[in-house]
Each structure stands twice: as C-alpha cells, then as structure tokens.
Design goal:
homodimer, 116 residues, mainly beta, Jelly Rolls, six-stranded antiparallel beta sheet, 10 strands, 0% helix, 55% strand
Chain lengths: 116, 116
C-alpha cells in the first residue's frame, strides 16, 4: 500500500510541443508498479494550455481546481470543479486554463503503458 | 467525449457484505465504453465504512472530502484531502469515515472488467 501527499510528488514541466506553462505530477505510474493505469495531476498556469492533439488511448479527467476550457474540433466547453470528462482514443482535445487569476488542476488517468 | 457533473450521476447504495452507509457513483465505466479503467466516487456517511476485504485487482484512490481511516491488516492510517493511495491486488483494506460530522468522499479507480 502506498500513500502519498499530492503536493509532495514532484511537479515536472511538460515539454511536449504545443504545451505552455503546464506541469505534471505522476501520482502513481510505472515506478510504483501500477499495473493497469497511471494517475497524474496536471497543473496549468494562467495563460497556459496542453497541446491540441490526439493519441491512441483514452483520458479520464477530474477537475480539481480552477476553470478549464476543454477544446474539441468543433468548439470549446468550460468545465470546472465537480465535473469529469472521458476523452476516447483518437479524439482531438486540448485543456486551456480558463481563468485569469487561478491555476487549473486536473487529474488525468491513462493506461499505464502510455505513462513513461 | 463525455462530460458529466459528479452530482448528477446516480449515487447507489453499496450492498456488499461488510459495507455500511456507503454509496457509489460510477462516473465512467462499461456503460460509457470506458476501455481500460472505471472511475467511481464513493461516499461514506458518518459512522460508515467499506468492507474489510481483498480482491485480485488494484485500487487507486483520491480523497475528495472529509477524513478517512484506511484500515490495513496491521493498523490504520488517517488520510484526507490532498492524499492518494495505491492498494495493490490481494492486500486487505477498508475505508472508514474518520469524522463525526462530515461525509467522506473518495475517487476509486479500478480495471474496468471489475466494474459491473
């Protein structure tokens, strides 16, 4: 059994092309011998965003703090604390911080083989 | 892409033997065609608890509200908002509400084949 405080897990800047002012804490992943899925918390600073991209695996997302604009091919949806999102494989998406004052935080769970 | 508000997902009483005053909202599971893992929110009323049990799959848990006593074979650990837990397969565990006033809420993610 492993118990962690989220704030004690290193926040690492996301270096992917198209990402701006985003960091990630890998809460549970391959280094913890997570067998099936990886649990990460992304933190998007004011003005920041993830890449607008797609990939061959799903996301399940839980908004933990702030306001997020979830960008799809046909528009954007504002989401906030108390909302969850399932993004199927191969569907384009982006998360933008939707607030001018507050860092946005979201859990994002993926199959563990896609967490390096 | 599916967006849900957590409070709009049905909270269903957990009927397992050994559970007391616990309900579950299946946020994403087989009915949403979640391919790899199911995302659920458990809510444990004051005085309530999950079964003290084990099973052949892991849990990843995120405390969302309240205070929880995480019971292991050799004792219990208090956990609260901002903490996450990985419980490996076949390790006995129980979640008890640790507060006398507040419902405890936690996300619990499992491989989707174990979500009926």
């Amino acid at each position: 059994m492993i118990v962690k405080k989220i704030v004690e897990v290193d926040a690492v800047p996301v270096q992917m092309e198209g990402a701006k002012d985003v960091s990630v804490r890998v809460l549970f992943g391959p280094k913890d011998a997570a067998p099936t899925f990886a649990l990460r918390q992304f933190e998007i600073a004011v003005g920041g965003h993830t890449p607008f991209h797609e990939h061959p695996f799903e996301h399940e997302v839980v908004v933990m703090a702030g306001e997020i604009n979830l960008v799809k091919e046909d528009g954007k949806i504002p989401i906030t604390v108390g909302e969850v999102v399932l993004i199927p494989a191969n569907e384009k998406h982006q998360f933008q911080n939707g607030s001018s004052t507050e860092t946005a935080k979201m859990l994002c769970i993926v199959p563990v083989e896609y967490q390096k």
